[in-house]
Amino acid sequence: MDHEVTRSVDEAVAEALEGEADRQRSTLQMIASENHVSEAVLDAQGSVLTNKYAEGYPGARYYGGCEYADEVERLAIERASELFGADHVNVQPHSGTQANQAVYFSMLEPGDKILSLDLNHGGHLSHGHPANFTGQLYEVEQYEVNPETGLLDYDGLADHAAEFEPDIIVSGYSAYPREVEWTTIQSVADEVGALHLADIAHITGLVAAGVHASPVGIADFVTGSTHKTIRAGRGGIVMCREEYADDIDAAVFPGGQGGPLMHNIAGKAVGFKEALQPEFEAYAERTVENANVLGETLAEHGFSLVSGGTDNHLVLVDLRESHPETSGGDAEDALEAADIVLNANTVPGETRSPFDPSGIRVGTPALTTRGFDADDTRRVGELIARVIDAPSDEAVRSDVRDEVAALCEANPLYE
Ligand SMILES: *Cc1c(COP(=O)(O)O)cnc(C)c1O
Asked: Computed over its alpha carbons, how large is the radius of gyration of the chain?
């Protein structure tokens, strides 16, 4: 990845691209929403399809010359249908947020009511945050996790829904380490006559591999990101029952987007093909195993985990008891200086500000992609503990950087 061609035109951008590739190779990517796509997905995404306008859908485009675009989009749809068992799939959303937008635009009027999980408790901006279009267009109330257990409070959700009478209930989260009971949430929605959107952005790969229960066939709508656990390149996807297919397609295009990013759709098609192979199931299982090993290691070192552990690809660490002097931001900065990249995160019952919250969110999808096994991951957990125990100790940082370098060398990426 020397970006020779780019370099011949633009030294500055080529330098930055090479710098980014080196950063990804030589440091630990533990942001739970990130992953490393294959070189095949990279190649498809960096292809001539970026040149092509293909407004419309396969077989019904507004432009000529779409035979290859059609082929690629059909393959992406077919493979996604097979992966998830969905009746209808739209692979055009530019991102997970645009996928959610399509559901809202197709089903809600401005002023309609959304009931979603509080952002501080693991929800997402596109579920009704005041700074997001959802918070501006709709009336939003939020449910919570139980602050003691860190688990979704399904009874509280049912009570809240009965009182608020939402038009749609949103499930699926950005920082929830436990399995979600889709059928329970669906019964709450049925009880109050609400639609149910299950946003599996983070766990799209785990659901595809059968490692996490699937909401497809249960929830009215299922949306996802394609660049997180499923590592199919940047983008979004919407799935629904046939009855909603035309409404959803119209809400994606022309409702919310113009021409589809056909090069990204090519990436999705290739990534979905990879996700259909048996190796992907093994990958998803290892990702969850590694998250468990990471959680156990951190717990052994005195850290407190929200919900006590994990069922998926991430652990959420609440630093307040074990490290009351260290904010999530302090931990993030110290770890980054030690070549371990993750993010500060709010925790249930947050007492600091969202800009410098009390926790860190730590994910295993990217490390598992580059080959980290349970032993490697245990070592990573020990390194994280070492850094947070002495967040401004230069000698510790330097030691940890050496160990990170060795782990990276043993698990090479994009050679
Ligand atoms: C990541 C995420 C999204 C989508 O994010 P984009 O950056 O728009 O792709 C949507 N919902 C949840 C719960 C997420 O975690």
From this structure: 21
Q: In CATH, which of 3.40.640.10, 3.40.50.2300, 3.10.350.10, 1.20.120.450 is domain 43-275?
A: 3.40.640.10
Rounded to two decimals, what is the model's pTM? 0.97
Q: Is the shortest distance between the CB of 176 and ligand 1 below 6 Å?
A: no
- Please measure the distance between the N-terminal and C-terminal CA atoms of the chain and give it in whole angstroms: 8
- Ligand 1 within 6 A of CB of 33: yes
Say yes or no: CB of residue 305 within 6 Å of ligand 1. no
Specify the CATH number for 4-30+278-410; select among 3.90.1150.10, 3.30.499.10, 3.40.50.300, 1.20.1640.10. 3.90.1150.10
Q: Output the six-digit token pair for 24.
A: 């990804």
Per-residue pLDDT tens digits for 269-311: 999 999 999 999 999 999 999 999 999 999 999 999 999 999 9
Q: Answer yes or no: is pLDDT of 82 > 90.
A: yes
pLDDT digits (tens, 9 = 90+) for 182-222: 999 999 999 999 999 999 999 999 999 999 999 999 999 99
| Strand, coil or helix: 19 | helix
**Is 5 within 8 Å of 146 (Cβ atoms)?**
no
- CA-wise closest residue to 37 among 269, 360, 341: 269
Atom of ligand 1 nearest to the CA of 200: 13
